[in-house]
Design a protein that fits this description.
By secondary structure, this protein is an all-alpha fold. Helices cover 77% and strands 0% of the residues. The protein has seven helices and no strands. It has helices at residues 9-40, 55-82, 85-117, 125-146, 150-163, 165-177, 197-240. The longest helix has 44 residues, at 197-240.
């Protein structure tokens, strides 16, 4: 079975409709379990105190801020190369979700940074790359909103999205290229860098919950975009008649 069959709006709507309910249920259950465990079941860190618990929101949001942009870039590239309209609509649907996760990552990072670094914001390489990526999200959304012709809007916004990939890449790997205040990966398989199970297990739960929430939100928004595109097509047909 080819994955490209789901580029057909009818196939996409059929599959996504079946997936939505289990996704919402799983996301809500895991969010409740993860948040409860993070708040009431984890100890304070010996250095960071209770501030460490910001990690359970910040880390999944930061991961999704980057990965959502990567999904947008892949969908945009597929749309440009193969002219699959559903791909463009998936990228369009993902943008506000990615923007929200990026905002959450920036805000929670600032809340953590103030007591840890003594400042709400520093022009650190990773933080700056995430901020620029935030503005690319805004620019992408604005471009879709300001161009009336859907085909032109899809192509131009797709090109803009691909240009911004460099900042998504830097957001992920900046700590490898420059000496930054930002710590490295919170989760690693390298010796000596493993997180204690008291924090790691609820963090894994929150990460899975956030990803399921993202998929559910993406499907809802993509289905809405497909319906809006169909409604626009019918309206134009009615006007032409």
């Amino acid at each position: 079975m080819s994955i490209w069959r789901y580029a057909n709006p009818l196939e996409f709507m059929r599959l996504s409709g079946r997936l939505l309910t289990p996704l919402w249920v799983a996301a809500c259950v895991l969010l409740a379990v993860g948040l409860g465990w993070a708040v009431f079941g984890t100890p304070d860190d010996y250095r960071q105190g209770s501030t460490v618990k910001i990690m359970f929101i910040h880390v999944p949001a930061a991961m999704l801020s980057i990965n959502t942009y990567a999904i947008m870039a892949i969908a945009s590239a597929v749309g440009i190369i193969r002219r699959h309209h559903v791909s463009f609509l998936v990228a369009k649907a993902a943008a506000p979700i990615g923007l929200a996760f990026t905002a959450i990552a920036l805000i929670t990072g600032a809340v953590w940074g103030q007591p840890m670094w003594g400042a709400w914001w520093v022009w650190d390489a990773r933080l700056t790359a995430v901020l620029i990526m935030f503005f690319f999200y805004l620019g992408y959304i604005a471009l879709w909103a300001t161009i009336d012709e859907p085909e032109k809007a899809a192509d131009l916004s797709g090109i803009l999205c691909l240009v911004g990939v460099i900042f998504a890449f830097l957001s992920r790997y900046a700590v490898m290229f420059w000496a930054t205040l930002h710590q490295g990966s919170s989760l690693s398989v390298a010796e000596g860098q493993r997180m204690d199970d008291a924090f790691r297990t609820p963090l894994y739960i929150m990460m899975v919950a956030f990803y399921l929430l993202f998929i559910a939100l993406l499907l809802v928004r993509a289905r809405t975009e497909i319906r809006l595109r169909r409604a626009r097509s019918l309206r134009l047909q009615a006007l032409a008649a």
